[in-house]
Amino acid sequence: MAAEIEIRALGKWFDEGARRVEALRAIDLDVAHNEFVTLVGASGCGKSTLLRVLAGLETHDEGTIRVGGQPVHGPGADRAMVFQHYSLYPWLTVEDNVKFSRRLRHGRENLTLADVEAASGRADALLALMGLTGAARAWPNQLSGGMQQRVAIARALMGRPRILLMDEPFGALDAQTREVMHDLIRHVHRVEATTLVFVTHDVEEAIYLADRVVVLAPRPGRIDTIYPVPLPAQRDPDMKHAPEFLALKKEILARIRATSGMKTDQGLLERLNRATEPAAQP
Ligand SMILES: Nc1ncnc2c1ncn2[C@@H]1O[C@H](COP(=O)(O)OP(=O)(O)OP(=O)(O)O)[C@@H](O)[C@H]1O
């Protein structure tokens, strides 16, 4: 079966003043329908750029991207993105934030009553899925960060995207809320049957959520290693202490460290320490 996302020889450059930065080089990646893939890697390895190119928010300079067999040349209703900072409309209630999807706005003039009713049914279902039914009439500023991010996810799902792209969506949340969100997003992934590509700095999060973890390396941004996750589909937080989980975490952290180019210069550290030691008294 053809991959849902097919990336071939993808290259992307940025102009930074007089300098040209090769943000992505020769990326080849297939993501299957309903697969959950996480992207990790040292700072600047191109995780966000790859996600933005997939979303059609950035153009690419080399290679091809196909989604559902069709080449990507810009944003489309088949893909939705969730960012770290919940970009909710502060003047709309939770319910209206969810209903007010990009797809509905675009087709506003042609909307029939049946479309609006169908949207309300879908919005109610998504609010229930995300545990937000009781907060439907609340305003965004009345909600915790975790709840706001749940609204943002519900809104992204409103147009039934085939693919959900998430850029560090839980990066600003506290550890307990993140744990709850992990199980929630796995559940959403299952019941909505979306294909998920998720960027994170947190290797534990990357392993717990994914079917495969893609490690990128920087300068130029490229795929270093792809790790299948050897855990059952039904995840449980206790799995984070399992030997195979810890071994994979150690290996991925070592790869990120090895590719980051930020090796500790032991000699330099020792010279610095000596230079700051008080001089011996005569
Ligand atoms: N709009 C831009 N203009 C110029 N250079 C950019 C732009 N966006 C990204 N870059 C450069 O492209 C490279 C990849 O950046 P990107 O933000 O995709 O990496 P990242 O892996 O998501 O980083 P981080 O983990 O720090 O968020 C970096 O060298 C970055 O400086």
UniProtKB/TrEMBL annotation:
Top enzyme class: hydrolase
Gene3D superfamilies: P-loop containing nucleotide triphosphate hydrolases (3.40.50.300)
The ABC transporter domain, residue ranges: 5-243
UniProt keyword Nucleotide-binding present: yes
One GO MF term attached to the UniProt entry: ATP hydrolysis activity
Domain of life: Bacteria
InterPro entries: AAA+_ATPase, ABC_transporter-like_ATP-bd, ABC_transporter-like_CS, ABC_transporter_ATP-bind, P-loop_NTPase
EC number of the protein: 3.6.3.-
Keywords from the UniProt entry: ATP-binding, Cell membrane, Hydrolase, Membrane, Nucleotide-binding, Transport
Pfam families xref list: ABC_tran
Similarity field: Belongs to the ABC transporter superfamily.
Name of the molecule in the record: Aliphatic sulfonates import ATP-binding protein SsuB
High-level lineage: Bacteria, Pseudomonadati, Pseudomonadota, Betaproteobacteria, Burkholderiales
Gene name linked to the record: ssuB
